[in-house]
Amino acid sequence: MDWLNILNLTGGELIGAYTAAYVLCALGLAMHFGFTGLLNFGQAAFAALGAYGYAIATLSFGWNMWGSVAFGLLCSAAFAVVLGIPTLRLRADYLAIVTIAAAQALRFAFATSAYDEVTGGANGLSQFGEDFYNYNPIPEGRYPLGALEFSEKELWIRIVGWSLVAIAALVMLLLTRSPWGRVLKGIREDEDAARALGKNVFAYKIQSLVIGGSIASLGGMVFVMSSQTNQPQTWGTNFTFMIWTILLLGGAATILGPVVGGMTFFALLMFTQSIMEGLVTMGWLPFLDIAQVGQIRFLLVGLVLMLLVIFRPQGIFGNKKELQFNG
Amino acid sequence: MANQISVGEPAPGCKKVDPILVASNVTRQFGGLTAVNVEHLEIPRGQITALIGPNGAGKTTMFNLLTGFDKPNTGEWDFDGHKLAGVASYKVARLGMIRTFQLTKALSLLTVLDNMRLGDQKNPGEGFLASFLRPSWKRHEAKITAKADELLKRFKLDAKREDYAAALSGGQRKLLEMARALMSDPKLVMLDEPMAGVNPALTQSLLEHIKGLKESGTTVLFVEHDMHMVRHISDWVIVMAEGKVVAEGPPAEVMKNPAVIDAYLGAHANSDLGDVTIGDAKEGN
Question: The ABC transporter domain covers which part of the protein (chain B) (predicted)?
Fold first, then answer.
């Protein structure tokens, strides 16, 4: 087995562009669930709106990168408000049902052939990243990083992705340590008590939904920008559940949790896959073939996560007393 | 008999010399059941008023209606010059009418100190944009922290300052909820069963706190089943039964009212329930 290659692949996941995208989505979800107590099971919709908003603004409107980013964020903020007005008055578990349904509905709307010319229908959109890569200051070439090697584009999207993670984490840190964040936590604990103390609970929830949703939209943009393809099937419920997994792995009411949770999750995924592939080629796992390994690794990761939630519900960084899984 | 609170003789729905809260024709139906049907009610300013009545009399529903946590079928009420019918609960709180809950709502996973700070209503840092600008709220934060510490000391919770509220006992949570309500210097404090679940050793200090509120000019309205407490600290008693106000007056007189004895007090009308020991109760049987 090629251990060096396995470690390389695993290390590559730690700083991957997809990892950064998922981490951004998980940070947004930490704002929703960890700090405000909103059970949002439609995080994929916010990411999708960022991705589609960007791609449509670029391809259909011919806007530059900044305009496209702004349009993506605007779409997701509008979605947060439209979704929030009727649902944020509902009890937490109803919100979960509504958000998951809204996310699915949105995905079908993107996939339908009725708006083919704008959304690309089931094929999605591609080649919308020209302006983004025009900003790339790195000259063309291959860049080694340890044993890994990146093209200038791969390097650029990683730098931008992880910078966004750093900025989002800083913004969340400032927000959650402020009196504003304290009100959110108060709402998470008991919204009636917050109301009785004169807090406009609804307004705070909308703000939280918009902020968390915007951060997830940036994640969606990073996600589609690395391959310059945006397909509707990306934004299914499995996307949302991956984000939840990352969040719970790291710790829901923390900032560092989603970041390290995301890195750990993808590194673990790659590590188990590589090892199993190695074992299969060596003939140690005769009941498996290479194609099945991709499925099996999710099973193993699922098992690890179940054990985590049972024995360490607060995640890697969470304070056990502050937030448990049933938060 | 004359008193300084009501205009004329005390009677259900009588006018007060200086009311802080005036409610008229407040009704609330749950399906076919009329939970609250109050023709007229005035709460005297600067006094401690007890709202008593048997279970299901509509006391808590009345609380919920007055504070905007529930919407009445009909009715309007006026708090300190503001029309309040249909006003959202958080706005009611901002006008200076702060309530507590029968089932204590301590914010379990916030520290005791953060619970207290949340009680403040003028913190500029609670605005979204201002929250990024620490200098804009740092001074206010220090001010309310000092105020919170002072209140915590008064309520003997200062040792628990850094603990999560979840770590407090039931009685301490009641105290915390009350102290938190005082952070915004409310004009009217509405306490829903402040004594329920509080051990007798704490009861005395709670009573002192409530009396202290009156001295500092705050109006207090509380729901309570403990007659001992009602007799000892209230200036005025309002009795509800089946959703209606059936009697009002100074505590000593109300307790003698046949309608009240009938509706509520029953056999122990003449004994201070706080003094009834288990032995006495057995003999009574």
Answer: 21-267
Does B269 contact A at CB distance below 8 Å?
no
> Strand locations in A160-291, DSSP E?
229-230
pLDDT: which is higher, A289 or B150? B150
Give pLDDT tens digits for A249-296: 888 889 999 999 999 999 988 888 888 888 888 888 888 887 888 788
Q: Six-digit token pair at A73?
A: 């964020």
Q: How confident is the model at residue B272 (pLDDT cuts 50, 70, 90)?
A: low
The reply to whether B89 touches chain A by the CB within 8 Å rule is yes
Question: Are A198 and B166 a contacting pair at CB < 8 A?
Answer: no
CA B141 to chain A, closest CA, distance in angstroms equals 8
Predicted local distance difference test score (pLDDT) of residue B66: 93
B174 is a domain residue: no
As given in the structure block, the two tokens for residue A179 are 């009196």
Residue whose structure tokens are 């699922």: A302
Selected residue with higher pLDDT from B16 and B1: B16
Q: What are the backbone dihedrals phi and psi of residue A268, each rounded to the nearest 5 degrees, phi first?
A: -60, -45
Partner residue facing B93 (CB), from A186, A195, A321: A195
CA distance B102 to B100: 7
What is the value of pTM for the model shown? 0.89
The answer on pLDDT for B259 being more than 80 is no
Taking CB atoms and an 8 Å limit, are B93 and A198 in contact across chains?
yes
Beta-carbon separation of B107 and A193 below 8 A: yes
Q: Are A252 and A309 in contact (CB under 8 A)?
A: no
Q: Which of A177, A169, A172, A189 is nearest to A37 (CA)?
A: A189
Contact A182 B108 (CB under 8 A): no
* pLDDT higher than threshold 80 for residue A48: yes
Tell me, yes or no, whether B202 lies in a domain.
yes
What is the rounded distance in angstroms from the CA atom of residue A236 to the CA atom of residue A139? 36
Q: List the single residue in A171, A175, A199 with the smallest CB-CB distance to B90.
A: A199
Distance CA(B110)–CA(A181), nearest Å, equals 11
Partners of residue B188 on adjacent β-strands: B97, B219
- Do B23 and B65 fall into the same domain? yes
How many whole angstroms separate alpha carbon B171 and alpha carbon B161?
16
Of the candidates B56, B43, B48, the one whose C-alpha atom is nearest the C-alpha of residue B244 is B56
Out of A182, A322, A327, the one facing B117 most closely (by C-beta) is A182
- Mean pLDDT value across residues A223-231: 93
Domain count for chain B, please give it: 2
What is the per-residue burial (b if ≥16 Cβ within 10 Å, else e) of B139-149?
ebbeebeebbe
Nearest to A179 by CA among A197, A164, A196: A197
Tell me the pairing of strands B244-249 and B236-241: antiparallel
Q: Which residue of A has its CA nearest to B123?
A: A179
Range of the domain at B210: 19-106+187-284
Question: Are residues B74 and B150 part of one domain?
Answer: no
A74-78, A314-318, B162-166, B186-190 — which is least confidently predicted? A314-318
Asked whether residue B76 falls in the same domain as residue B203, the answer is: yes
